[in-house]
Inverse folding.
C-alpha cells in the first residue's frame, strides 16, 4: 500500500497556522508523525493559508525537507507554483495533479518527464467528475495514451478515479471500484491507482469507519494506495490487512508490525 | 446483511458446558446477546458436547426457542439429526449444510422442500474444498441446477463458497471473491451467498481485524451475509458500512443505529 500522508495541508487549522506564522515546528511535527505511522510520501498543500501561494509552498517544501527525504506530493492547481516547487524538491516528487483533458495532460506530463517526477492524473474533465465508470475508464485511456506519447514511464503514472462523498453521491463508491477493475487491464504493467480517500466521508459522522471500509473495498478492486491520514491507526491496519487478504503481503502472526517495520 | 449468529455451538466452552449440564440459562443468554446485537438467525451446533447428538440437538432447539422465534440454522452433518431437528423448529429453519455432490443434494434439497426450510450448500465435493474459483463456480452451477430440479425456490438457497484460513491458504480469499462475482450471474434472481466467516482467521492472531476486513471485501464482491459473531461490534459496523458503500443501505448520519434498529 502506497500511503501519501494528507496532513500537511493548509486546510487543517494547525498547519494553516504553521504556514502563516512560519512556525516550522508545527509543520515538522505533523511530518514526523505521519512518517512514524508509515507514510511513503507526504502531500504538500498550502490550502487557504494567507499569503502568496508560491512563497508559502516553497517555505513548506523547505521546512518539510529539513526532517525527511521522503518524496513530496506537490498539491496545487497553479502551474507556475507546481513548476517552481518541483525544482525545490530534493527527492523526485509527485505532481498532484492533472485533469484528464488533453490540454492539461499536454502540459503536466512533459513537466513530470523533465523533472523526473511522477504524475497523479484525475478522471476529471471540463464537465467535472463523471457519474459512471465508463466515462472514468475513457478518461483513464486518454491519460495512459498521453503518458506514452510524452514518454512518461507508466510506473511513474498514478490515476485517481476520484471518489465523491457517499452521503451525496451514493452510487460513486461502486462506480469507482468498477473503474479500478477495468483500468487495471488497460496496460501491462498497469499504472498505479490511488484515491483521495477522505473525500468519501466528507461531512459524514463516522468518517474513520467509512474511510477504512472503503479503503478495504477499493484495495480488493485494485487500488494501490491512497492520499490519506496515516496517523489513523485503524485505517492503516485495515489497509494492511486488505493487502494480506489480496496476497500482496505474506501472513505472519505479527504481519502489521512486520509491514510497518519493513519500510 | 443477513447475519447468522455463530455462537450457539458446542465448540465454545460455555455452550458446551450448557449442553452437557442441560443449563438453559447459559444457552439462552448467548442467544439473547446475539439477537440484541443484530442476528437475523441463530446457528445451532452441538459441537463436541458429550451425549447423544440427537438428544443434545433437540434440547438446544427447544431451549433456544423458549427465548426467540428467529429462524434457526441447524448445523449438523448427521442426516437423521437434521431431519428430526427440522420437525422441532417452529419457524422455517435453515439446513446447514449439504455438500455439492449430486447424492447429497438429492437428499438435502428435497428435505428442505418438504420442511419449507432454506438450504445452505457448500462448494465442497468428495475431493474437498477446491483450490480455485473455477471449480467452485462449477459446483455452484450443480447446486443451482439441483435446487431447480427438486423445486426449491432459488430465494431459499444459500451457497457458501467456503473460505479457508488465510495463514495456510493465502490464495483462497481472492478465489472466493472471484467465485462470488461469477456465481451472482448464474441465475436471476441469484441465490444468496454466505460464508462461514470466522474460518478465514482460524489460528491467526488478529482474528477480529481479519474477519471484518474480509467481510467488507466479500460484501463488495457480492456476499449477502455470513455465519459470524454478531456480538463483535466492529465486525457488525464494518459489514453495515460495506453495505452502505455498496448502496444497499441509505446514508443517514446515524446509519448504523438505523440499521440495527430497523430489523
Amino acid at each position: 500500500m502506497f500511503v501519501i500522508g494528507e496532513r500537511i495541508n493548509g486546510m487543517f487549522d494547525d498547519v494553516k497556522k504553521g504556514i502563516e506564522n512560519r512556525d516550522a515546528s508545527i509543520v515538522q511535527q505533523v511530518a514526523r508523525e505521519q512518517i512514524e505511522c508509515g507514510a511513503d510520501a507526504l502531500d504538500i498543500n498550502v490550502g487557504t493559508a494567507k499569503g502568496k501561494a508560491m512563497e508559502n509552498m516553497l517555505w513548506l517544501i523547505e521546512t518539510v525537507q529539513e526532517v525527511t527525504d521522503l518524496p513530496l506530493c506537490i498539491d496545487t492547481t497553479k502551474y507556475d507554483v507546481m513548476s517552481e516547487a518541483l525544482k525545490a524538491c530534493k527527492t523526485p516528487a509527485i505532481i498532484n495533479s492533472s485533469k484528464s483533458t488533453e490540454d492539461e495532460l499536454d502540459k503536466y506530463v512533459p513537466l513530470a518527464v523533465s523533472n523526473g517526477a511522477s504524475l497523479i492524473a484525475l478522471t476529471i474533465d471540463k464537465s467535472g467528475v463523471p457519474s459512471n465508470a465508463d466515462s472514468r475508464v475513457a478518461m483513464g485511456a486518454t491519460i495512459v495514451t498521453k503518458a506514452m506519447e510524452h514518454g512518461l514511464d507508466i510506473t511513474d503514472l498514478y490515476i485517481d478515479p476520484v471518489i465523491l462523498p457517499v452521503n451525496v453521491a451514493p452510487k460513486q463508491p461502486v462506480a469507482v471500484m468498477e473503474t479500478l477493475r477495468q483500468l487495471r487491464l488497460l496496460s501491462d504493467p498497469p499504472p498505479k491507482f490511488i484515491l483521495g480517500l477522505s473525500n468519501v466521508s466528507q461531512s459524514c459522522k463516522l468518517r474513520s469507519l467509512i474511510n477504512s471500509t472503503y479503503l478495504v473495498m477499493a484495495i480488493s478492486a485494485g487500488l494501490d494506495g491512497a492520499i490519506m491520514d496515516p496517523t489513523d491507526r485503524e485505517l492503516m491496519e485495515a489497509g494492511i490487512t486488505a493487502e494480506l487478504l489480496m496476497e500482496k503481503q505474506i501472513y505472519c502472526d505479527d504481519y502489521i508490525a512486520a509491514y510497518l517495520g519493513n519500510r
